[in-house]
Amino acid sequence: MFPLTTGQPTGTGSLISFLVPLIIMFAVFYFLLIRPQKKKQQTRNNMLNALQKGDKIVTIGGLHGKILELADDTVVLLVNDATKLTFDRSAISHRVNTESEG
After folding, report:
1. What is the pTM of this model?
2. Choosing a second label site near 73 at 20 to 30 A (CA), which of 6, 25, 36, 66?
3. What string of H, E and C letters represents the secondary structure of the chain?
């Protein structure tokens, strides 16, 4: 009348076959998207923290300037001989390599 059971639950195989693709998909997202973004953010934070007076930088908007003053969250740039502009530190895109300018 009742079917014979082998003592194993019938849903275990389907649960494993459901979880394995999800774990693999999470691993792919982590190694292709999350981890590289964290590394890029860490190198940007290191660059922003290493800025010093006199460094030549480029802002996110493309403005080139030389750092005159640094505060915790702001930077004063000398754009030409007389123009000083204040920017957020986060608006700095990158530092210009002054060694190649000769």
Report:
1. 0.68
2. 36
3. CCCCCCCCCCCHHHHHHHHHHHHHHHHHHHHHHHHHHHHHHHHHHHHHHCCCCCCEEEECCCCEEEEEEECCCEEEEECCCCCEEEEEHHHEEEECCCHHHC
